[in-house]
Structure formats: structure tokens, C-alpha cells
Amino acid sequence: MTRARRIRIAAGALLIGFAGLNILAWGHARTMTHFAAAGPRTGKAETLSWGQKLGVLAVGVQIPKPRNDKTPLERQMPFDTWMIEVEPGITLEAWAVRAADAHGVVVMFHGYADRKSSALGEARVFYDLGWVPVLVDLRGSGGSSGDTTSIGFHEARDVEAAAAVVHERFPRLPLVAWGASMGAAASLRAVGELGTRVDGLLIEAPFATLRSAVVNRFHSLGVPAFGLAELLVFWGGEQLGFNGFAHNPVEYAAHVRSPTLLMLGSRDDRVLMPEGRAIFDALAGEKQFEVFEGLRHESLVRGNREQWVRVVGAFLNRISRTPSRDAQP
Q1: What CA–CA distances, in Å, run from 42 to 31, 52, 60?
Q2: Euclidean distance between the first and final Cα of the chain, in Å?
Q3: Which fold has domain 72-209+247-321?
Q4: What is the pLDDT of residues 70-109, one digit of tens each?
Q5: Residue 37 near residue 64, CB atoms below 8 Å
Q6: Which CA distances in Å does 144 have to 8, 32, 108?
């Protein structure tokens, strides 16, 4: 076999391999951003056997559309259901808890592949602190329309629309946005890039960049992320109409002037401590960083209720005393 022929064969093999890798990444991006109509959900990486992890690597995850399994009544909170139109074809379902003589409103946004009923524990604390919780299903989840997620990029429009409705219905009360993980990333984009007006931000475990979020999830599977993570970010953005490499909450944070409390578990393997610190350092306004020792990428109020209530309560007290200060924009 001649040297030229060997080069052609090697080049062909590389092209086939590259094409195969792109097909694999395209499929993974689709299963991560398009919820299934039904079926079992793929478990968390740390709960999977090696065989199951190999299956996930081969065909991607399966995530059925998240459905609400409780209502605020289970936490003894009366509520009204709102339907919020974001844009043609996108309508959000929200639960607005009824509360008299409230200090303010907390509009709440859940994490990736989740739904608003998962935040009822946090909502009850806000309610007990004298604030009106408004829990929102982001697009594709719970009672909201659609079956896709952009990991916080397009969801920033949902944050913007929900905040506008809250301002309209509670014009004299300060508004704080609370978000967990993807909900935190969407809130940072809404406030920092879209100019959504809030009096404060409560954010738990926001990822610094979409790429870092993908890389960390590969690492949780125990496999290297080089190359495939970049393809996943690229194809995910292509499928949903945005540039995945520009979806960087650490950059959005630089334009956030509203008082912000950022909370992160010390053992979070989805959002590493340096990423949380980078977002905190970038924030342009009054800010506080709170670490929850021993906690992972989980509900921080369930992990350490005493600490969560103390720091969140103090933050909300400061906001209620000066509701117009540094409101954004």
C-alpha cells in the first residue's frame, strides 16, 4: 500500500469519526433539551452503574416533561393560578400565594428539568417571612406550554414576563427574584442582559457558563469531556436558536446592579466553587456570598434550614427597608 493511499484511508477514517461524534453530540443535545412525552427518567449520574452510564453515553438521557405533583395547599398556603403569556406559543403557569400585609413579592424559578412544585419548601419560608411567593413553571415544564428547555437562555424571557406581571399586580411592593441552578442563570440573564427590574436577587448555584455546566456533568459520569462537551454546547444552541458559547451567566452578572445574595453548597459538583466565586466577583452591585458546608447541588433549605432562613431572612429585611434602592434598571 502506498503512502498516499494510507494517508487517504486515515483521512477518511478521521472524517467518519468526526461525523459520528457530531451525530452522537446532536442526539445528546436533543435528549437534554427536548422532554419526552412519557416514560422513566434517567437517574442522576452518581446513582447509575457503569453499564447504565455507558448506555447514557450511547443514546443520551431520557427526561419526561416535569409535572407538578403538589400544590401550595399541601403547605397550607392558599393560592391563585395565573397564566402568563411570554410570546406567541409560550404561556407560563404560575401559582401566586395569597398573603395579607406582605413586605414584598418573591417570584420563583426552578432548575433544569424541574417544576415549580419542587420549590414549595422555599415558598413556605418566604410566606412565613411575610413575603408573597409566586412560583413559576418555566417554558416546557409543569403547567407551562412547550416541551423544550434552553438551559436558561430563552427562559430569561420567562423571568422578564413574570416579573412584569408581578409589578403590574403588586405595584407598591418590592420584588425579589429567586432562582435555583438554571432558574438562577435565567434570572441573571433577565436582569443583567434584558434589563428586568428587580429590587433584589436570590440565586442558588448558578453555572458560570453553559460549557462549564456540560463539562461538570460529563465529569459526574466519570468520563472526559474534551471535544464532546463543545459539540454538545454547539448543537444544543443550534437546535434551539441561540449561541451556546455566549450563554454565560458570569458575563451577565457584570451588568447586575441589584443587591444579590448568591448561595452555593461547598460540595457542589455541578457548579464548582471557583465558578460561584467568579460570578460573585463579577456582580456590579451590593452582594453577599454564602457557602453551605457539606451540601451538594441540592435544595439548600432542605440541607440546612437554619442557615438558609437566617441569611435569606436578613437579606429580605434589608430589601424591605429600602425597596427602591438600586432597582434595576
Answers
A1: 11, 9, 9
A2: 69
A3: Rossmann fold (3.40.50)
A4: 999 999 999 999 999 999 999 999 999 998 889 999 999 9
A5: yes
A6: 52, 18, 14
